[in-house]
Give the backbone structure.
Amino acid sequence: MRRWLLIVVLGAHPAVAQVAEKAPVAEAADRTAEEEPRPAAGGPKFIGIPIPIYNPQLDFALGAIAMLTYPLDSEDRLSPPSSTSLFGLVASNESYMLGAGQRFYWDEDNNRGTVGFAIGHFNSDFYGTGDQTSADIAFPLGTTGVMMLAKYLRRVWNRLYLGGQYRYLHTDAVLEAPSEPPEELDTFTPIEESSRSSGAGALVEFDSRDNQFSATSGFYAPVATIFYAKALGGNVNHGAVEASVNWYRALHAKELILAARGNLQAAFGDTPEYLLPAIGKGADLRGYATGRYRDNIFMSAQAELRWYFWRGLGAVAFTGVGSTTSSVSQVFHGPVLPSYGAGIRYMLHRDERLVMRVDYGHGNEDGMFYFSVSEAF
């Protein structure tokens, strides 16, 4: 039997740290006409909300988010508000997570940075990779992990940003035998493994959104690379590339918004199975358990109609499709994975368009609920 490696489900709210060395400032004349000064900055705004969660991986869980948003410079009318976040989660299957992060925007949005940290333990299921994934055979997986990240972006022209990132992930995990193993797995014994991934990479972003939390116009097109290396403290050399394009258009004032997103992820080198592109790990294709499908390449497209109809209350309908595959030559041979669903929204702060969302997504198997602060994309 092939050797099964391990998966971790661990994340942190984004956060930002200033960088001491500054590149030349982009001139205001280079900015698009869409970039309008914001109203005079107000004081800090605090949000604290509980987040009930249910999905096939965690069973029932209760999370909580505490977020403080604030301007770094009250005279700066172009930078989005910075934020400090704390997040915690406890699940009925004995999983837990604690995370913290900061996100900073400064110097008229010429500088952006993020730092984050999370620690937790997750009891979940491992379904395999590629054409070996199976909803009928799930390996119980207990993973304890620590994650750290840091990102910095500098505006170089118009709405174009260049920068870099660093990520570190340490996991200790135990893969158990399935609860009802087939005959060929009768002799399966638990696998224990400790792994480290430490890597750095380049970032490119074009961002003409009118708002970071709930955009009503513009584009957001990030491209991220990451190269994990033994020289940086990891166990193995491998890498990944991710590219996305998000588009937003207000159909009626800022109350009816059409949003669309395309995403492509690819892994190369000796990528551990727990770091392969996987469905359910981010904003793409709601309605699937995390890691239910994973392979060297993951691609998806989705569209969402958002309607804010009364006093900050809104409703959303979304649909999408995606696939995983082993290589570019097999790009049209992977499973077709539909996604559709609906949700409700509430504008916690209308001036900053900070949104609380509750979605129900369905795929080709069981559906899932999603609770979060900010739109899905």
Summary: The longest strand covers residues 139-157. Residues 28-373 form a domain with the Porin fold (CATH 2.40.160.50).
